[in-house]
Every structure is written in structure tokens, then in C-alpha cells.
UniProtKB/TrEMBL annotation:
Location of this chain's protein in the cell: Cell membrane
Protein name listed in UniProt: Cytochrome bc1 complex Rieske iron-sulfur subunit
Key words, A-Z: 2Fe-2S, Cell membrane, Disulfide bond, Electron transport, Iron, Iron-sulfur, Membrane, Metal-binding, Oxidoreductase, Respiratory chain, Transmembrane, Transmembrane helix, Transport
Native source species: Streptomyces synnematoformans
Biased composition (Basic and acidic residues): 17-34, 43-53
PROSITE patterns recorded: RIESKE
């Protein structure tokens, strides 16, 4: 009796009592099955389902959110074009931050948020909220299931009212069309679009070679045979806002080699009494080259072991570097200080696609 009742309850999916024999005096006791399927609660229509004015209000709200998303995307693009990358502003409680980064973050965040909020409000107020139960089925769908899915898709499309709610459809398409423009605009930073910035450094004719450690102009006597010294161009001061950007291109290393040991005659003519000046920036990925072997005149990049022969125009002997280290032509002025006769003979650092 009890197994029969339990089976019935299970099959009907109703939360009905289960009869158990026993108890005092052999009287049957009824118990509720805690695992019985309660079923779905009765469907309650929303206000928008029965009041077209409420539905219109929801439609306007969704459209407003999509419209704000479009305006925010336009603001993102305008900010990217109009705001200087170096501009700093104070915003409480963030403190001093980049105005460009703040504007891009706010506008793009608002554009994406409004699309999401509009879609959620649309689904909660206008799309069908009737719950549909579907029994589990094999992984491979039967032809009947495929037909059912297609019909449910058509039904869902109709119930979403995307066909009849034209203003929602148009503003949604507008928002989704404009948002990808943010990513396209950001591709501009991947360019590169450096114009001629990668081809020139702060070195120019007449600029003194300043010792990186003492901040004093260098004389030939300051550089001994077999030593390696480092210099920066005159006028580039530590702590300046553009110091890191400029020294990353203008960093210079000086080596003094016996004139008879220099293999490249042209390289020797660019130096002074065996003092040669080369870029310190490796032509592989831009690491600082600084490990010098006095006996071989080889300099090694510590990152990927590219090796350059400073006695032979800094040509590559080993490693992934694709070009010799650019050389700086130097001489001495009337006061006996070393100075540059121009910029490097080649763009410094790693190769780039526009480089000839």
C-alpha cells in the first residue's frame, strides 16, 4: 500500500502525503515526502503584460539606455582625440590621475553598462517570462527536437517583440554598431604611428657627452683603454618629466680601444683617439647592453645573449639581434670636451616594420 502511494505521488509530481503502516494500535500514519516535486508555481502576469502604457514606458527606458550607450561611445572617441595624453587632473577620491585614462574608462564603461542594463530591463519587462520545462534528452537531438527548437526560436523572437518594438530594435542596433568603434579607435595606439620619433634621439651636433654618474662633461682622459663608460646628451636632466622616454633612446656607451685594434676604418673615423660611442640599446628587444669583455672588445646583452664586436662597427656576432648597434660620431671641442657631431647613423633599438 505504502509503495503504491509513494509511486503515485512520484508519477504525478504532486506533494501528496505518503501512507505508512504502523503506529499506535496499528493505525496508519500519513507523512509528507520531503523530496516530492513541488512543480512550477502559477504564472503571474507582469504589469507590462496587461497594461500597454506600462509596456511603452519600459520600451522608452530601454531605448534611453541604448541611446546613452551610443552617446557614451561618441564621448569615448571624442576623449581619445581631444584630451592630451600627458594631462593630469585631480578627481576625488582617486587623487591625481590621467585625464585621458579616466575619460576613456568612464565613457567605455558607461557604453557597455547601458547596453547590458537595457538588455536586462528589456528581458525582465517585455520579453516573455513564462517558464518552460523540458525533460532531459540524449545529446544527439532527434528530428522532432530540432523542429521544436526552431519553433521555440520563432516563438521567442515573436514574444521578444523585437519586430513590433521598432524604437528598441533601432536603438539596440545603433548601440551595438557603435560600441565596436571603441576597439577600432584603440587600434591606433598599436600602430605604431611614431612619425619620425623612432628615427631621432636628443643627440644633435654640438651636444656634449655628459657622464651618467657625475653629470659632468666627459674629456678623452676620463675614458681609459679597456673601460666602458656611459653618457647622456647635454640638457637631459634626471627627474625631468621626459627623462625616461628620452634616455630610452639616447643612452650611450663609450669604449676606448687601441687604434690599431679597430677593424672597421669607417667606425674608427667616427671616434676620437680610439674612443668609440655606440647606442646602449640592444637591437633585439631594447635591453641595456653593458657586459663588456676587454680582451675581445665584445659587448653582451644580458637578456638574450646577443653579442656585438665594438672593434668592428658593433656588428652582431651571436644571438637574435638583427642589426649592429648604431654609432654616434664624436670629436672634441676647443675646451677639450667630447661632443656629438649629429645623431646616430641608424634608428636605435629593435627593428620596426617601417625601417628601411
Amino acid at each position: 500500500m505504502s509503495s503504491q502511494a509513494g509511486s503515485e505521488n512520484e508519477n504525478n509530481g504532486e506533494h501528496l502525503p505518503t501512507v505508512r503502516e504502523g503506529g499506535e494500535g496499528g493505525v496508519a500514519v500519513e507523512e509528507h515526502d520531503p523530496f516530492a516535486n513541488p512543480g512550477l508555481p502559477p504564472h503571474e502576469p507582469r504589469k507590462q503584460d496587461i497594461d500597454e502604457r506600462a509596456a511603452k514606458r519600459s520600451e522608452r527606458t530601454v531605448s534611453l539606455l541604448f541611446t546613452v550607450s551610443m552617446l557614451a561611445t561618441v564621448g569615448f572617441i571624442a576623449s581619445f582625440v581631444a584630451i592630451d595624453v600627458d594631462k593630469i587632473v585631480y578627481i576625488f577620491p582617486l587623487g591625481h590621475i590621467s585625464a585621458l585614462n579616466f575619460a576613456l574608462g568612464v565613457t567605455l564603461g558607461l557604453a557597455l553598462f547601458c547596453i547590458g542594463a537595457g538588455a536586462i530591463h528589456w528581458s525582465r519587462t517585455l520579453m516573455s517570462d513564462v517558464e518552460i520545462v523540458q525533460e532531459r534528452h540524449p545529446i544527439e537531438a532527434t528530428p522532432e527536437t530540432k523542429t521544436l527548437v526552431k519553433s521555440e526560436w520563432r516563438q521567442g523572437t515573436e514574444e521578444s517583440q523585437i519586430g513590433s518594438r521598432k524604437i528598441i530594435r533601432r536603438t539596440l542596433l545603433g548601440a551595438l554598431t557603435l560600441v565596436p568603434l571603441s576597439g577600432i579607435v584603440l587600434l591606433r595606439d598599436l600602430g605604431p604611428l611614431p612619425e619620425t620619433k623612432l628615427r631621432h634621439t636628443m643627440w644633435d651636433k654640438g651636444k656634449l657627452l655628459i657622464n651618467m654618474n657625475t653629470d659632468e662633461p666627459l674629456r678623452p682622459a676620463d675614458i681609459t683603454v679597456g673601460s666602458l663608460s656611459f653618457a647622456k646628451p647635454e640638457g637631459l636632466e634626471d627627474g625631468a618629466h621626459d627623462f625616461n622616454k628620452e634616455i630610452a633612446k639616447a643612452a650611450l656607451m663609450l669604449v676606448r680601444i687601441h687604434p690599431g685594434d679597430i677593424k672597421d676604418a669607417e667606425s674608427a673615423s667616427w671616434g676620437h683617439e680610439g674612443i668609440l660611442a655606440f647606442s646602449k640599446i640592444c637591437t633585439h628587444v631594447g635591453c641595456p647592453v653593458s657586459l663588456y669583455e676587454q680582451q675581445t672588445h665584445h659587448v653582451l646583452c644580458p637578456c638574450h645573449q646577443s653579442t656585438f664586436d665594438l672593434s668592428d662597427g658593433a656588428r652582431v656576432l651571436f644571438g637574435p639581434a638583427g642589426h649592429p648597434l648604431p654609432q654616434l660620431k664624436i670629436t672634441v671641442n676647443d675646451e677639450g670636451y667630447l661632443y656629438a657631431l649629429g645623431d646616430f647613423d641608424e634608428p636605435v633599438g629593435p627593428s620596426f616594420w617601417e625601417r628601411g
